[in-house]
Sequence to fold (121 residues):
Amino acid sequence: MARILIVDDSPSQLLGIKRIVEQLGHEALTAEDGAAGVEAAKREKPDLILMDVVMPNLNGFQATRTISKDEETSHIPIVLVTTKNQDTDRVWGMRQGAKGYVTKPINEGELSKTIKELIAT
Fold:
């Protein structure tokens, strides 16, 4: 069982993603914005992070860059889970350190496949 941190400012999105993570047999941790996500990543050292992009305080691109550049947390794979579905958004997200990119509305099969691939590595 992996520990997966879900960072999203939408309570309904958090619940939906948490349900998918738990159905896969993993433990779900949550944070409500990018800044809280960075803190939780440092404190909890999860096996994977599912990160929204459009959030208050620190957006998902900024939080991903912070986590992936920090020696303590750079080993944690991050998947951006976002409504931003332009190719430029995807390229920018990967440049910030993301290892995966899933667009909303979430396709449960796609998210599950991405989680399984990144947990296995």
